[in-house]
Design brief:
Elements lengths: L3 E2 L14 E8 L2 E8 L7 E7 L18 H11 L3 E5 L19 H16 L4 E9 L1 H9 L7 E5 L6 H9 L4 H15 L12 H4 L4 H8 L3 H6 L5 E6 L7 H10 L4 E5 L13 H6 L12 H10 L1
Parallel strand pairs: 4-5, 4-6, 6-7, 7-8, 8-9
Antiparallel strand pairs: 1-2, 2-3, 3-5
Length: 308
Amino acid sequence: MKILYFFLILPLTLILGQNEKIITIQTQNCNLEGSLLLPYSTQNIPIALIIAGSGPTDRNGNNPMMQNNSLKMLAYSLEENGIASLRYDKRGIGKSVIPNFDESKLSFEDYINDVKSWIDFLEKDSSFNQIIIIGHSEGSLLGMIASQNKNVDKFISIAGAGESANIILKKQLSNQPKNFYETSIKYLEVLESGKTIDSVDQNYYSLFRPSIQPYLISWFKYNPQEEIAKLKIPILILQGTTDLQVKVEDANFLHNANPSSELKIIDGMNHVLKESELDMQKNMQTYSNPELPLKDGLIDSIVEFIKK
């Protein structure tokens, strides 16, 4: 794949003291924008590529409805420990604009290839002695797939799902009214077979609108347990006990699929990497509080793993 770089990294000695730089690359008809954060020591340092989760989540861990700055805090905490990072807006999100965006043309493979493009970009800088992939939530699956055939030294999964997206959706839908659940399952079974649904009831458009169906089909075929088993590099799996979206069970699925991985359960950490109770209202309040720090133990675990 040919990649065009709109902004090439200046020699690192020239940006000493200017910790964060905006980087833009063009790939697959999309300008991807990211933030490169460098520590004060800029030679022979590890760099972490941070991949955000699902939906309209930007490079900082925020979306139009909620701001918590979780991934921005992660990047700056790594910088304080001498570790560079690159976090980016996924295609169609934030500053990674797609002209005349057509949702029906989007596939899960597009996101995977974008991660690979960033890895290729980082490989070109000899200042980095390690490339570490850190995937949060859906970013975990993207990262583990992209790392399989690339020059990646270590992989870190934070709150990564342990089952394929269609199975997770079925579990989530089980709490819905019977009629809604049964119709949704029928739709899911069609998509699982690789076929699209010609006519979707308007009540189900948010989940199964025709334009999103190709993406769902492409997403459903990836099983995180199968993908993480393919990795032959050091792996760290991190999971919080008060995460309302991903469970400790998911982390165990991933760890059992690749027993050489390290598993770290962080008591009291929720999905946005903050300290929280299991109470839903209190938990969700942390999603919109950018002043809350990251949960104690998270950064220490990551830094220890990277520097090991």
